[in-house]
Amino acid sequence: MRRWVTVLAALTLVVTGAGTASTAAAAPQAEVCATGWGSMTKAAPGSMAMTGSVTDVRTGRHACYDRMVFDIPGMTTADPALYWVQYVPSFAHPPSQTGIPVAGGAVIEIEFTAPVDDSQYHVGLADPLPGLDLGGYRTFRDAKFGGYYDGGTHIGLGVRAKLPFRVMVLPNRLVVDVAHTW
């Protein structure tokens, strides 16, 4: 009789959900994303004459944002390159104002004072950035080279919509993160 009472009590706990400690622990947790970065222009004073050149551009997918990294040997957090990152209504080559189509619901213009090293990183005006496959990204759609003019390299980054973004300077890198959501 005691065994039946124990079995019945155990079944009651399972059916009513009173013993859900292990079940709750197994439930997936929603990712909490801090995206209070805003969508306003991000700019920083810095050195107009960089000793390094852009040697590579790469991207990465993260849980809350897509990331674009510009490798610029010689860039330091103490003396970063001058940069200007902002949403623009359309992307163009600076001196001629010739439009460069960039796919996406919104376009971020990225400008910084480091030239592109043609010997290591080959890209022509209005070309997609070489080596980047943006298929499967939640936010990124397209990336085009807008030229090097008046001390600044110009990149057009097409994104799904106008979303929060941030800019960080790390040793030898300029990083642009664009959030997946507000």
UniProtKB/TrEMBL annotation:
Signal peptide start and end residues: 1-26
Species this protein is from: Streptomyces lacrimifluminis
Domain AMIN-like residue range list: 53-180
Keywords: Signal
A Pfam family: AMIN-like
Annotated InterPro entries: AMIN-like (IPR056303)
Source organism, top-level taxon: Bacteria
Lineage of source species: Bacteria, Bacillati, Actinomycetota, Actinomycetes, Kitasatosporales
Protein name per the record: AMIN-like domain-containing protein
